[in-house]
Design brief:
The protein is globular. It has a ten-stranded mixed β-sheet with strand order 2-1-3-12-11-4-5-10-8-9, with helices on both faces. A two-stranded antiparallel sheet has the order 6-7. It starts with a strand and ends with a helix. It folds into two domains: 190 residues, 3-Layer(aba) Sandwich (Isopropylmalate Dehydrogenase); 154 residues, Isopropylmalate Dehydrogenase. The longest helix has 19 residues. With 353 residues, the protein is α/β, with parallel strands linked by helices. The chain binds 3-isopropylmalic acid and manganese (II) ion (MN). The site of 3-isopropylmalic acid has 4 residues, from α5. The site of manganese (II) ion (MN) has 2 residues, from α10.
Length: 353
């Protein structure tokens, strides 16, 4: 297969983990005879500094011309403490999602047996937890009408039936490929927008009698996720709730640096780690490249290339088994491996298997 990849490395640890992601992508391509070409493009703080726009037009065109976008992370502390900043790196991410029509954000919450002890939850609670959170990504409060003032301010949590329906369909499709259980997370006891979600879901569930649909309020869901994470198979929710719940989901596994994600919709799909740009780790060769590498696995799988994805997952598991790990998950007394060393070990493993 021929694949054109737009590479958006962004800020902080982004460029370092991206280097390893691309190396793994190329090793797999070579092995399976795929022709992959890459084009770098600016985004985030980096792009603000260079061209004054966190998602420049040229980057948008590069994304539109590509088959997939491999994205790392954006963000820089110099913007975080300045509420008066006119442009922010995060706006670049939101612009990318909106302009590429990426309404479905797929965030798998997977545990790795050998890392379960790193979880803040008890071993027996979290072991075997495996669910997918599907977050609506281009609607709700993030994009609704806003007013920003120093005396009053608001954000509007707008959803149309069509927006709700298309994301619920994605939820049902995933549920059908998994354990046939869909949890719709909302706040229908208070919010009108949530009542629309529930109304549409109650209509649609009749079309999917093979899937068990249940409904949960978001406050309850946030509790259930730590009390009984194995309850969930596929969870679907609106933009803001999904943002919050997926951070919770990523930390219960004990390994935030290992979780990839995919965003799909109308145009080019984007594959990216769930973690952020970790500015403190920048340039130190200590960031975990596995979430970026697993994002490459999701990318291959998106194009139906299952064996390619599987090989990457096996390589990642092998690296963990052999304690080839970055410092934050290394076992006591284990050897020191940096971002590059972990990436290179995985590339070598792929070549040899
Ligand atoms: C995420 C991030 C973004 C979001 C920020 C950086 C705008 O937290 O991808 O979850 O809130 O969507
Ligand atoms: Mn977030």
């Amino acid at each position: 297969m021929k694949l054109k990849i737009a590479v958006l490395a962004g800020d902080g640890i982004g460029p370092e983990i991206m280097e390893q992601g691309v190396a793994v992508m190329s090793a797999v391509a070579e092995k399976f005879g795929h022709e992959v070409t890459y084009k770098d493009a600016l985004c985030g703080a980096h792009a603000i500094d260079e061209v004054g726009n966190p998602f420049p037009e040229e980057t948008f065109q590069t994304c539109m011309d590509a088959d997939a976008v491999l994205f790392a992370s954006v963000g820089d502390p110099k913007f975080d403490n300045d509420p008066t900043a006119k442009v922010r790196p995060e706006q670049g991410l939101l612009a990318m999602r909106k302009r590429l029509g990426l309404f479905a954000n797929i965030r798998p919450v997977t545990t790795f047996d050998c890392l379960v002890h790193k979880s803040p939850l008890k071993d027996e609670l979290v072991r075997g937890a495996d669910f997918i959170c599907i977050r609506e990504l281009t609607g709700g409060m993030y994009f609704g009408e806003k007013k920003e003032g120093t005396e009053e301010a608001y954000d509007t949590n707008y959803y149309s039936r069509a927006e709700v329906e298309r994301i619920l369909r994605v939820g049902y499709q995933y549920a059908r490929q998994r354990r046939h259980h869909l949890t719709v997370v909302d706040k229908a006891n208070v919010l009108a927008s949530s009542r629309l979600w529930r109304h549409v879901a109650q209509e649609m569930m009749k079309e999917y009698p093979d899937v068990e649909t249940d409904f949960m309020y978001v406050d309850n869901a946030s509790m259930r996720m730590i009390q009984e994470p194995r309850f969930f198979d596929v969870m679907v929710t609106e933009n803001t709730f999904g943002d919050i719940l997926t951070d919770e989901g990523s930390c219960i596994t004990g390994s935030m640096g290992l979780l990839p994600s995919a965003s799909t919709g109308e145009h080019t799909p984007v594959f990216e780690p769930i973690h952020g740009s970790w500015p403190q780790g920048k340039g130190l060769n200590i960031a975990n490249p596995l979430a970026q590498i697993l994002s490459v696995a999701m990318l291959y799988e998106y194009f139906g290339l299952k064996a390619e994805g599987e090989l990457i997952r096996k390589a990642v598991n092998a690296s963990l088994d052999k304690n080839v790990r970055t410092p934050e998950i290394q076992v006591e007394g284990g050897e020191r491996y940096g971002t590059r060393e972990v990436g290179q070990w995985i590339v070598k493993w792929i070549k040899e298997h």
